[in-house]
Amino acid sequence: MELPSYVVRRNRVLFRPIQPKSHNLYKSPKPPFFSQTPSPTHRTFSSSFLRMLTNSTFLPATTGVAPLDDADFSLYFSFLQDDSFLPEMPPAKRARRAAPEDSDPRSESDDSSKAPPAPPPRRLWVKERSRAWWDQCNRPDFPESEFRAAFRMSRGTFDMICEELGAAVAKEDTMLRAAIPVCQRVAVCIWRLATGEPLRLVSKRFGLGISTCHKLVLEVCAAIKSVLMPKFLRWPDDPTALADARRKFELVSGIPNIVGAMYTTHIPIIAPKENVASYFNRRHTERNQKTSYSISVQGVVNPDGVFTDVCIGWPGSMSDEQVLEKSALYQLASQCGILKDDWIVGGVSYPLLDWAMVPYSQRNLTWAQHAFNERIGEAQRVGKEAFARLKMRWGCLQKRTEVKLQDLPVVLGACCVLHNICEMRGEELGREEMGYELFDDEMTPENGLRSLTAMNARENMARNLLHSGLIGTGFV
Protein backbone atom coordinates (compact mmCIF):
# COMPACT_ATOMS: atom_id res chain seq x y z
CA MET A 1 0.00 0.00 0.00
CA GLU A 2 1.34 3.40 -0.97
CA LEU A 3 1.27 5.79 1.98
CA PRO A 4 1.72 9.55 2.02
CA SER A 5 5.06 10.94 3.17
CA TYR A 6 3.38 12.78 6.04
CA VAL A 7 -0.04 13.40 7.45
CA VAL A 8 -1.06 16.77 8.94
CA ARG A 9 -3.98 16.80 11.35
CA ARG A 10 -5.08 19.68 13.57
CA ASN A 11 -2.18 21.90 12.59
CA ARG A 12 0.57 19.51 13.61
CA VAL A 13 2.66 16.83 11.98
CA LEU A 14 1.69 13.36 13.14
CA PHE A 15 4.37 11.25 11.50
CA ARG A 16 6.80 11.12 8.70
CA PRO A 17 8.18 7.74 7.45
CA ILE A 18 11.94 7.56 8.01
CA GLN A 19 14.39 4.88 9.03
CA PRO A 20 13.14 3.45 12.37
CA LYS A 21 15.28 3.45 15.46
CA SER A 22 14.92 1.66 18.73
CA HIS A 23 13.29 3.93 21.31
CA ASN A 24 11.02 3.43 24.21
CA LEU A 25 7.46 3.92 23.01
CA TYR A 26 6.01 5.07 26.32
CA LYS A 27 8.69 7.66 27.16
CA SER A 28 8.35 9.65 23.96
CA PRO A 29 8.06 13.36 24.68
CA LYS A 30 5.12 15.38 23.54
CA PRO A 31 5.74 16.78 20.02
CA PRO A 32 6.06 20.52 19.73
CA PHE A 33 2.96 22.39 18.73
CA PHE A 34 2.79 23.27 15.03
CA SER A 35 6.40 22.46 14.33
CA GLN A 36 7.40 22.40 10.70
CA THR A 37 10.01 19.70 11.43
CA PRO A 38 8.79 16.89 13.69
CA SER A 39 11.01 15.80 16.52
CA PRO A 40 13.18 12.68 15.92
CA THR A 41 11.44 10.73 18.63
CA HIS A 42 8.04 11.47 17.21
CA ARG A 43 9.20 10.52 13.72
CA THR A 44 10.53 7.21 15.03
CA PHE A 45 7.32 6.52 16.89
CA SER A 46 5.18 7.33 13.86
CA SER A 47 7.18 5.25 11.34
CA SER A 48 7.56 2.28 13.65
CA PHE A 49 3.93 2.26 14.56
CA LEU A 50 2.96 2.61 10.90
CA ARG A 51 5.07 -0.41 9.92
CA MET A 52 3.46 -2.40 12.70
CA LEU A 53 0.02 -1.49 11.48
CA THR A 54 0.77 -2.27 7.85
CA ASN A 55 2.01 -5.77 8.75
CA SER A 56 -0.90 -6.51 11.08
CA THR A 57 -4.39 -7.77 10.38
CA PHE A 58 -5.99 -4.42 11.12
CA LEU A 59 -5.65 -3.40 7.48
CA PRO A 60 -7.20 -5.39 4.61
CA ALA A 61 -4.71 -7.59 2.73
CA THR A 62 -5.85 -6.50 -0.71
CA THR A 63 -3.75 -4.82 -3.27
CA GLY A 64 -4.53 -1.57 -4.92
CA VAL A 65 -5.97 0.05 -1.88
CA ALA A 66 -6.43 3.77 -2.24
CA PRO A 67 -4.56 6.11 0.12
CA LEU A 68 -6.26 6.87 3.38
CA ASP A 69 -8.07 10.18 3.68
CA ASP A 70 -8.74 12.27 6.77
CA ALA A 71 -11.80 10.22 7.67
CA ASP A 72 -9.84 6.96 7.60
CA PHE A 73 -7.06 8.39 9.79
CA SER A 74 -9.63 9.62 12.25
CA LEU A 75 -10.91 6.07 12.46
CA TYR A 76 -7.63 4.22 12.91
CA PHE A 77 -5.75 6.89 14.88
CA SER A 78 -8.49 8.12 17.16
CA PHE A 79 -6.11 7.79 20.16
CA LEU A 80 -4.32 10.93 18.90
CA GLN A 81 -7.36 12.97 20.00
CA ASP A 82 -6.40 12.41 23.64
CA ASP A 83 -6.17 15.59 25.70
CA SER A 84 -2.50 15.01 26.52
CA PHE A 85 -1.57 15.37 22.83
CA LEU A 86 -3.85 18.30 22.01
CA PRO A 87 -2.32 21.77 22.14
CA GLU A 88 -3.72 24.37 24.48
CA MET A 89 -5.92 26.57 22.36
CA PRO A 90 -6.66 30.20 23.26
CA PRO A 91 -10.08 30.78 24.79
CA ALA A 92 -12.82 31.49 22.32
CA LYS A 93 -14.07 35.03 22.05
CA ARG A 94 -17.34 35.75 23.74
CA ALA A 95 -20.12 36.11 21.27
CA ARG A 96 -21.48 39.57 20.82
CA ARG A 97 -24.81 40.07 22.48
CA ALA A 98 -27.59 40.30 19.97
CA ALA A 99 -29.48 43.53 19.73
CA PRO A 100 -33.09 43.47 20.93
CA GLU A 101 -35.66 43.07 18.25
CA ASP A 102 -37.60 46.18 19.21
CA SER A 103 -34.55 48.45 19.17
CA ASP A 104 -34.84 51.47 16.96
CA PRO A 105 -31.69 52.49 15.05
CA ARG A 106 -32.87 56.10 14.98
CA SER A 107 -32.95 56.22 18.78
CA GLU A 108 -29.38 54.96 18.87
CA SER A 109 -28.25 57.73 16.59
CA ASP A 110 -30.11 60.26 18.73
CA ASP A 111 -28.44 58.97 21.91
CA SER A 112 -25.01 59.14 20.30
CA SER A 113 -25.55 62.78 19.40
CA LYS A 114 -26.33 63.70 23.01
CA ALA A 115 -23.61 64.59 25.55
CA PRO A 116 -22.43 61.69 27.74
CA PRO A 117 -24.03 61.60 31.18
CA ALA A 118 -22.11 63.20 34.05
CA PRO A 119 -20.11 60.75 36.17
CA PRO A 120 -21.41 60.08 39.67
CA PRO A 121 -19.78 62.12 42.46
CA ARG A 122 -16.70 60.55 44.03
CA ARG A 123 -17.14 59.16 47.48
CA LEU A 124 -15.11 60.71 50.29
CA TRP A 125 -13.11 58.07 52.07
CA VAL A 126 -13.38 59.77 55.45
CA LYS A 127 -14.37 58.00 58.60
CA GLU A 128 -17.35 59.61 60.26
CA ARG A 129 -16.38 61.01 63.68
CA SER A 130 -18.32 63.08 66.14
CA ARG A 131 -17.40 66.77 66.39
CA ALA A 132 -20.08 67.70 68.88
CA TRP A 133 -17.62 68.91 71.53
CA TRP A 134 -15.70 71.21 69.21
CA ASP A 135 -18.87 72.49 67.55
CA GLN A 136 -20.18 73.43 70.97
CA CYS A 137 -16.93 75.20 71.93
CA ASN A 138 -16.90 77.08 68.65
CA ARG A 139 -20.34 78.55 69.20
CA PRO A 140 -20.46 82.29 70.01
CA ASP A 141 -22.62 81.68 73.08
CA PHE A 142 -20.18 79.21 74.64
CA PRO A 143 -19.35 80.34 78.22
CA GLU A 144 -16.14 82.34 78.46
CA SER A 145 -15.08 80.71 81.70
CA GLU A 146 -15.31 77.22 80.22
CA PHE A 147 -13.42 78.32 77.11
CA ARG A 148 -10.67 79.84 79.26
CA ALA A 149 -10.42 76.68 81.35
CA ALA A 150 -10.16 74.51 78.23
CA PHE A 151 -7.63 76.55 76.23
CA ARG A 152 -5.86 78.54 78.99
CA MET A 153 -6.80 81.82 77.30
CA SER A 154 -9.81 83.95 76.48
CA ARG A 155 -11.65 83.80 73.20
CA GLY A 156 -10.26 87.18 72.20
CA THR A 157 -6.68 85.95 72.55
CA PHE A 158 -7.55 82.76 70.72
CA ASP A 159 -9.09 84.70 67.82
CA MET A 160 -6.02 86.94 67.64
CA ILE A 161 -3.72 83.90 67.34
CA CYS A 162 -5.94 82.40 64.63
CA GLU A 163 -5.84 85.67 62.71
CA GLU A 164 -2.06 85.89 62.93
CA LEU A 165 -1.57 82.27 61.81
CA GLY A 166 -4.31 82.20 59.18
CA ALA A 167 -2.06 82.64 56.15
CA ALA A 168 0.51 80.14 57.44
CA VAL A 169 -1.74 77.21 58.36
CA ALA A 170 -4.75 77.61 56.04
CA LYS A 171 -5.33 74.88 53.44
CA GLU A 172 -7.51 74.74 50.33
CA ASP A 173 -10.40 72.37 49.70
CA THR A 174 -9.74 69.40 47.41
CA MET A 175 -11.96 67.15 45.30
CA LEU A 176 -11.89 64.51 48.04
CA ARG A 177 -12.60 66.52 51.16
CA ALA A 178 -13.01 69.97 52.64
CA ALA A 179 -10.05 71.55 54.41
CA ILE A 180 -9.98 71.76 58.20
CA PRO A 181 -10.72 75.36 59.29
CA VAL A 182 -7.91 77.47 60.73
CA CYS A 183 -9.63 77.87 64.10
CA GLN A 184 -9.94 74.10 64.49
CA ARG A 185 -6.30 73.59 63.54
CA VAL A 186 -5.16 76.08 66.15
CA ALA A 187 -7.56 74.66 68.72
CA VAL A 188 -6.16 71.14 68.30
CA CYS A 189 -2.63 72.41 68.91
CA ILE A 190 -3.46 74.59 71.90
CA TRP A 191 -5.60 71.89 73.52
CA ARG A 192 -2.83 69.35 73.09
CA LEU A 193 -0.25 71.71 74.63
CA ALA A 194 -2.55 72.82 77.44
CA THR A 195 -3.75 69.41 78.60
CA GLY A 196 -1.03 67.03 77.45
CA GLU A 197 -3.72 64.46 76.58
CA PRO A 198 -2.77 61.49 74.39
CA LEU A 199 -3.43 61.90 70.72
CA ARG A 200 -6.17 59.28 70.73
CA LEU A 201 -8.21 61.39 73.19
CA VAL A 202 -7.56 64.57 71.21
CA SER A 203 -8.74 62.70 68.12
CA LYS A 204 -12.04 61.72 69.73
CA ARG A 205 -12.62 65.21 71.10
CA PHE A 206 -12.15 67.05 67.80
CA GLY A 207 -13.47 64.36 65.44
CA LEU A 208 -10.20 63.95 63.53
CA GLY A 209 -7.76 61.13 62.92
CA ILE A 210 -4.87 60.48 65.27
CA SER A 211 -2.23 61.09 62.61
CA THR A 212 -4.09 64.22 61.50
CA CYS A 213 -4.00 65.64 65.03
CA HIS A 214 -0.30 64.90 65.35
CA LYS A 215 0.38 66.59 62.03
CA LEU A 216 -1.70 69.62 63.00
CA VAL A 217 0.20 70.08 66.27
CA LEU A 218 3.55 70.10 64.48
CA GLU A 219 2.33 72.40 61.70
CA VAL A 220 0.82 74.96 64.04
CA CYS A 221 3.89 74.91 66.32
CA ALA A 222 6.13 75.49 63.31
CA ALA A 223 3.90 78.40 62.23
CA ILE A 224 4.06 79.88 65.73
CA LYS A 225 7.85 79.68 65.65
CA SER A 226 8.15 81.34 62.23
CA VAL A 227 5.33 83.91 62.49
CA LEU A 228 4.77 84.77 66.16
CA MET A 229 8.19 84.27 67.73
CA PRO A 230 9.81 87.27 66.00
CA LYS A 231 6.97 89.45 67.32
CA PHE A 232 6.44 88.17 70.85
CA LEU A 233 9.78 86.63 71.91
CA ARG A 234 12.72 88.92 71.26
CA TRP A 235 15.45 90.71 73.14
CA PRO A 236 14.38 94.26 74.05
CA ASP A 237 16.41 96.64 71.90
CA ASP A 238 14.23 99.63 72.73
CA PRO A 239 15.89 101.94 75.30
CA THR A 240 12.50 102.65 76.81
CA ALA A 241 11.81 98.97 77.40
CA LEU A 242 15.27 98.45 78.94
CA ALA A 243 14.83 101.43 81.25
CA ASP A 244 11.44 100.13 82.35
CA ALA A 245 12.95 96.70 83.09
CA ARG A 246 15.74 98.25 85.21
CA ARG A 247 13.24 100.25 87.21
CA LYS A 248 10.95 97.29 87.94
CA PHE A 249 13.77 94.96 88.93
CA GLU A 250 15.23 97.58 91.24
CA LEU A 251 11.86 97.96 92.94
CA VAL A 252 11.79 94.21 93.53
CA SER A 253 15.39 93.61 94.62
CA GLY A 254 17.01 96.96 95.31
CA ILE A 255 19.86 96.09 92.92
CA PRO A 256 20.29 98.53 90.02
CA ASN A 257 20.81 97.81 86.31
CA ILE A 258 19.11 94.41 86.17
CA VAL A 259 17.35 93.74 82.86
CA GLY A 260 16.57 90.02 83.11
CA ALA A 261 16.36 86.95 85.34
CA MET A 262 17.80 83.69 84.08
CA TYR A 263 16.62 80.16 84.91
CA THR A 264 17.02 76.64 83.49
CA THR A 265 14.49 73.84 83.78
CA HIS A 266 14.26 70.30 82.43
CA ILE A 267 11.51 68.68 80.36
CA PRO A 268 11.10 64.90 80.81
CA ILE A 269 11.32 62.81 77.66
CA ILE A 270 11.17 59.16 76.67
CA ALA A 271 14.56 57.48 76.46
CA PRO A 272 15.92 58.21 72.98
CA LYS A 273 17.29 55.49 70.73
CA GLU A 274 20.64 57.22 70.25
CA ASN A 275 22.97 58.90 72.76
CA VAL A 276 20.93 57.69 75.70
CA ALA A 277 23.65 58.53 78.23
CA SER A 278 23.68 62.18 77.11
CA TYR A 279 20.03 62.67 78.03
CA PHE A 280 20.18 60.78 81.34
CA ASN A 281 19.34 63.18 84.20
CA ARG A 282 21.20 61.91 87.24
CA ARG A 283 19.88 64.55 89.64
CA HIS A 284 16.22 63.87 88.82
CA THR A 285 16.85 60.13 88.95
CA GLU A 286 18.31 60.33 92.45
CA ARG A 287 15.54 62.60 93.72
CA ASN A 288 12.61 60.69 92.18
CA GLN A 289 14.13 57.21 92.53
CA LYS A 290 13.17 56.59 88.91
CA THR A 291 15.25 56.65 85.74
CA SER A 292 14.76 60.05 84.11
CA TYR A 293 15.76 61.48 80.74
CA SER A 294 15.30 65.13 79.87
CA ILE A 295 16.26 68.08 77.74
CA SER A 296 16.97 71.54 79.09
CA VAL A 297 15.19 74.85 78.54
CA GLN A 298 17.11 77.98 79.49
CA GLY A 299 15.27 81.28 79.48
CA VAL A 300 15.67 84.92 80.40
CA VAL A 301 12.55 86.82 81.50
CA ASN A 302 11.76 90.47 82.09
CA PRO A 303 10.11 91.81 85.27
CA ASP A 304 6.67 90.94 83.86
CA GLY A 305 7.53 87.25 83.46
CA VAL A 306 7.80 87.47 79.66
CA PHE A 307 10.57 85.52 77.95
CA THR A 308 13.12 87.62 76.13
CA ASP A 309 15.55 84.81 75.25
CA VAL A 310 15.33 81.00 75.22
CA CYS A 311 17.80 78.21 74.55
CA ILE A 312 16.11 74.83 74.04
CA GLY A 313 17.19 71.31 73.28
CA TRP A 314 20.48 70.53 75.03
CA PRO A 315 20.70 67.09 76.72
CA GLY A 316 19.66 66.75 80.34
CA SER A 317 23.07 65.51 81.49
CA MET A 318 24.59 68.95 80.87
CA SER A 319 24.84 71.37 83.77
CA ASP A 320 23.37 74.87 83.75
CA GLU A 321 26.85 76.27 83.24
CA GLN A 322 27.41 74.15 80.13
CA VAL A 323 24.02 75.04 78.69
CA LEU A 324 24.76 78.73 79.19
CA GLU A 325 28.08 78.44 77.36
CA LYS A 326 26.31 76.80 74.40
CA SER A 327 23.61 79.45 74.14
CA ALA A 328 23.50 82.35 71.71
CA LEU A 329 23.07 84.74 74.65
CA TYR A 330 26.53 83.82 75.94
CA GLN A 331 28.10 84.57 72.58
CA LEU A 332 26.27 87.88 72.12
CA ALA A 333 26.97 89.07 75.66
CA SER A 334 30.60 87.94 75.84
CA GLN A 335 31.75 88.85 72.34
CA CYS A 336 29.27 91.40 70.99
CA GLY A 337 28.66 93.22 74.27
CA ILE A 338 24.88 93.61 74.10
CA LEU A 339 24.88 93.98 77.91
CA LYS A 340 27.24 96.89 78.47
CA ASP A 341 26.42 98.07 81.99
CA ASP A 342 23.44 95.82 82.63
CA TRP A 343 23.11 92.57 84.53
CA ILE A 344 21.28 89.31 84.15
CA VAL A 345 20.77 87.58 87.49
CA GLY A 346 20.88 83.83 87.95
CA GLY A 347 21.19 81.13 90.59
CA VAL A 348 24.23 79.53 92.14
CA SER A 349 24.40 77.06 89.23
CA TYR A 350 25.67 79.83 86.92
CA PRO A 351 29.17 81.34 86.93
CA LEU A 352 29.89 84.97 87.82
CA LEU A 353 30.55 86.81 84.55
CA ASP A 354 30.93 90.38 83.38
CA TRP A 355 27.22 90.47 82.59
CA ALA A 356 25.83 87.66 84.83
CA MET A 357 25.34 88.38 88.54
CA VAL A 358 24.89 85.41 90.89
CA PRO A 359 24.64 85.07 94.70
CA TYR A 360 27.47 84.05 97.01
CA SER A 361 27.91 80.30 97.21
CA GLN A 362 30.71 79.87 99.77
CA ARG A 363 30.16 79.17 103.45
CA ASN A 364 30.58 81.57 106.41
CA LEU A 365 29.00 84.58 104.73
CA THR A 366 29.04 88.06 106.23
CA TRP A 367 25.91 90.06 106.96
CA ALA A 368 26.42 92.07 103.80
CA GLN A 369 26.73 88.91 101.73
CA HIS A 370 23.62 87.43 103.35
CA ALA A 371 21.75 90.63 102.55
CA PHE A 372 22.90 90.52 98.97
CA ASN A 373 21.82 86.88 98.54
CA GLU A 374 18.42 87.71 99.97
CA ARG A 375 17.82 90.65 97.65
CA ILE A 376 19.15 89.00 94.50
CA GLY A 377 16.96 86.02 95.31
CA GLU A 378 13.92 88.28 94.89
CA ALA A 379 14.99 89.09 91.35
CA GLN A 380 15.83 85.48 90.65
CA ARG A 381 12.38 84.42 91.86
CA VAL A 382 10.83 86.34 88.96
CA GLY A 383 12.43 83.93 86.51
CA LYS A 384 11.56 80.83 88.52
CA GLU A 385 7.92 81.86 88.86
CA ALA A 386 7.73 82.53 85.13
CA PHE A 387 8.89 78.98 84.42
CA ALA A 388 6.40 77.66 86.98
CA ARG A 389 3.54 79.46 85.20
CA LEU A 390 4.85 78.14 81.89
CA LYS A 391 4.55 74.55 83.10
CA MET A 392 1.25 75.18 84.87
CA ARG A 393 -0.29 76.70 81.76
CA TRP A 394 0.95 74.03 79.33
CA GLY A 395 0.45 70.63 80.89
CA CYS A 396 2.41 68.83 78.17
CA LEU A 397 5.60 70.07 79.88
CA GLN A 398 4.80 68.26 83.13
CA LYS A 399 4.87 64.72 81.72
CA ARG A 400 6.95 62.73 79.32
CA THR A 401 6.03 63.87 75.87
CA GLU A 402 5.28 61.66 72.87
CA VAL A 403 6.86 64.12 70.43
CA LYS A 404 9.99 62.98 68.64
CA LEU A 405 13.24 64.42 69.89
CA GLN A 406 13.97 66.31 66.69
CA ASP A 407 10.54 68.01 66.79
CA LEU A 408 10.52 68.78 70.52
CA PRO A 409 12.45 72.13 70.40
CA VAL A 410 9.84 73.56 68.05
CA VAL A 411 7.00 72.49 70.35
CA LEU A 412 8.74 73.91 73.43
CA GLY A 413 9.45 77.15 71.62
CA ALA A 414 5.77 77.43 70.71
CA CYS A 415 4.86 76.98 74.38
CA CYS A 416 7.17 79.87 75.31
CA VAL A 417 5.66 82.12 72.64
CA LEU A 418 2.09 81.31 73.71
CA HIS A 419 3.12 81.95 77.32
CA ASN A 420 4.35 85.42 76.34
CA ILE A 421 1.11 86.18 74.52
CA CYS A 422 -0.94 85.18 77.56
CA GLU A 423 1.28 87.20 79.92
CA MET A 424 1.16 90.30 77.72
CA ARG A 425 -2.64 90.12 77.44
CA GLY A 426 -3.13 89.51 81.14
CA GLU A 427 -4.46 85.96 80.93
CA GLU A 428 -4.62 84.60 84.46
CA LEU A 429 -4.36 80.97 85.44
CA GLY A 430 -7.32 79.17 86.94
CA ARG A 431 -7.41 77.33 90.21
CA GLU A 432 -6.98 73.99 88.50
CA GLU A 433 -3.63 75.06 87.07
CA MET A 434 -2.30 76.62 90.26
CA GLY A 435 -0.32 74.66 92.80
CA TYR A 436 2.41 73.22 90.60
CA GLU A 437 5.76 73.23 92.40
CA LEU A 438 8.90 73.53 90.30
CA PHE A 439 11.88 71.34 91.19
CA ASP A 440 15.23 71.84 89.50
CA ASP A 441 18.40 70.81 91.31
CA GLU A 442 21.11 73.44 91.06
CA MET A 443 24.75 72.43 91.03
CA THR A 444 27.59 74.80 91.82
CA PRO A 445 29.93 75.21 88.84
CA GLU A 446 33.54 74.17 89.16
CA ASN A 447 34.84 77.58 88.10
CA GLY A 448 32.22 79.96 89.45
CA LEU A 449 34.36 83.13 89.59
CA ARG A 450 35.39 84.17 86.09
CA SER A 451 35.36 87.95 86.26
CA LEU A 452 37.28 90.14 88.69
CA THR A 453 35.20 93.13 87.65
CA ALA A 454 31.99 91.32 88.55
CA MET A 455 33.42 90.27 91.93
CA ASN A 456 34.21 93.90 92.85
CA ALA A 457 30.78 95.06 91.65
CA ARG A 458 29.09 92.43 93.78
CA GLU A 459 31.00 93.48 96.90
CA ASN A 460 29.96 97.09 96.36
CA MET A 461 26.33 96.07 95.90
CA ALA A 462 26.40 94.04 99.12
CA ARG A 463 27.79 96.97 101.16
CA ASN A 464 25.30 99.40 99.70
CA LEU A 465 22.38 97.09 100.51
CA LEU A 466 23.60 96.69 104.09
CA HIS A 467 24.06 100.41 104.74
CA SER A 468 20.84 101.41 102.98
CA GLY A 469 18.74 99.18 105.24
CA LEU A 470 17.34 97.09 102.36
CA ILE A 471 17.83 93.78 104.16
CA GLY A 472 15.05 91.43 105.12
CA THR A 473 13.89 90.52 108.57
CA GLY A 474 15.52 87.11 108.36
CA PHE A 475 18.90 88.47 109.48
CA VAL A 476 17.79 90.95 112.15
From TrEMBL:
Q: Does the keyword Membrane apply?
A: no
* Keyword Nuclease appears in the UniProt entry: yes
Composition-biased stretches (Basic and acidic residues) = 98-113
Q: What is this protein called?
A: DDE Tnp4 domain-containing protein
Q: Where is this region: Disordered?
A: 92-122
Which cofactors does the annotated protein need, by name? a divalent metal cation
Question: Among the entry's GO cellular component annotations, what is one?
Answer: nucleus
